[in-house]
């Protein structure tokens, strides 16, 4: 107990100690940039060196593998695509666990299987470190603006010590419970997001076919009971909102392959808990179809274009 209290104190005292950041893609890149801009000394690593250019231009230090990040920093954030990538980064030959210092705080913000988060937290504990799962909501827009919501799982006192760092990248930091609980909350959110995005896409498509102006229809939905984040903030129809992927050929944003992965996590969770998720399962299959048609890298709002493509093939 006393040992743990000393560890936390050490981290609090060194709140400007180096922060390691691994995985600098659509989300991790802008999150790490916010830390640099808030004055944190940041050490970065990504398998694609080009993804670190802007960060190093603004003062981050680039290293060559995750173990080197752990040698240089005792607070490490990871933002990687899937469970397999996260396991590789922590447990691989040159992984974080190879050289993590005692008392290090390891925060994984990727969306992965709750069981993998739980197992990594157990392994971290054996190495004298703390592992928190802290997946995010808010998309690339929230990552850039520093307004993300973090859903945190792990020991509550460790959540408290991680909070100031997470607040430098987000607006809401919510404690969800034991290790893996952050992932559970995130999986539920994304299943609803996929369902509401598909609903918005089919609704907009039907309205257009009925001869309605898309901006007019979006405006009506957004002041009526059909309103949701997908209709209001992230409308899937090109030209309705200026700074969203649908108005940029569905580039950037949240990839369809990643949404498909999250729906797969929901499906596994539903099977494990014996829960019925008919719409979640249907959403999973629709997004899988999009991936098989080569749309995995497009933003998940491209479901609108996909529906139109299926109709045009009639
Ligand atoms: P991304 O594919 O854009 O970025 C992932 C980064 O990880 C890439 O730069 C890749 O090179 C790097 N990477 C992969 N393997 C690596 C390894 N072994 N070592 C170091 N770096 C490695 O993905 P993203 O959109 O940033 O999403 C990351 C996570 O955040 C995913 O789990 C996703 O589900 C979740 N998420 C994404 C969004 C979004 O809107 N994009 C929103 C919320 C949550």
UniProtKB/TrEMBL annotation:
<feature type="domain" description="3-hydroxyisobutyrate dehydrogenase-like NAD-binding">
    <location>
        <begin position="180"/>
        <end position="306"/>
    </location>
</feature>
<keyword id="KW-0496">Mitochondrion</keyword>
<keyword id="KW-0560">Oxidoreductase</keyword>
<keyword id="KW-0520">NAD</keyword>
<dbReference type="GO" id="GO:0050661">
    <property type="term" value="F:NADP binding"/>
</dbReference>
<dbReference type="GO" id="GO:0008442">
    <property type="term" value="F:3-hydroxyisobutyrate dehydrogenase activity"/>
</dbReference>
<dbReference type="InterPro" id="IPR015815">
    <property type="entry name" value="HIBADH-related"/>
</dbReference>
<comment type="pathway">
    <text>Amino-acid degradation; L-valine degradation.</text>
</comment>
<feature type="active site">
    <location>
        <position position="186"/>
    </location>
</feature>
<dbReference type="Pfam" id="PF03446">
    <property type="entry name" value="NAD_binding_2"/>
</dbReference>
<dbReference type="Pfam" id="PF14833">
    <property type="entry name" value="NAD_binding_11"/>
</dbReference>
<dbReference type="InterPro" id="IPR011548">
    <property type="entry name" value="HIBADH"/>
</dbReference>
<dbReference type="GO" id="GO:0051287">
    <property type="term" value="F:NAD binding"/>
</dbReference>
<dbReference type="InterPro" id="IPR013328">
    <property type="entry name" value="6PGD_dom2"/>
</dbReference>
<comment type="similarity">
    <text>Belongs to the HIBADH-related family. 3-hydroxyisobutyrate dehydrogenase subfamily.</text>
</comment>
<dbReference type="InterPro" id="IPR029154">
    <property type="entry name" value="HIBADH-like_NADP-bd"/>
</dbReference>
<dbReference type="InterPro" id="IPR036291">
    <property type="entry name" value="NAD(P)-bd_dom_sf"/>
</dbReference>
<dbReference type="GO" id="GO:0006574">
    <property type="term" value="P:L-valine catabolic process"/>
</dbReference>
<keyword id="KW-0101">Branched-chain amino acid catabolism</keyword>
<dbReference type="InterPro" id="IPR002204">
    <property type="entry name" value="3-OH-isobutyrate_DH-rel_CS"/>
</dbReference>
<dbReference type="InterPro" id="IPR006115">
    <property type="entry name" value="6PGDH_NADP-bd"/>
</dbReference>
<dbReference type="GO" id="GO:0005739">
    <property type="term" value="C:mitochondrion"/>
</dbReference>
<dbReference type="InterPro" id="IPR008927">
    <property type="entry name" value="6-PGluconate_DH-like_C_sf"/>
</dbReference>
<keyword id="KW-0809">Transit peptide</keyword>
<feature type="domain" description="6-phosphogluconate dehydrogenase NADP-binding">
    <location>
        <begin position="18"/>
        <end position="177"/>
    </location>
</feature>
<protein>
    <recommendedName>
        <fullName>3-hydroxyisobutyrate dehydrogenase</fullName>
        <ecNumber>1.1.1.31</ecNumber>
    </recommendedName>
</protein>
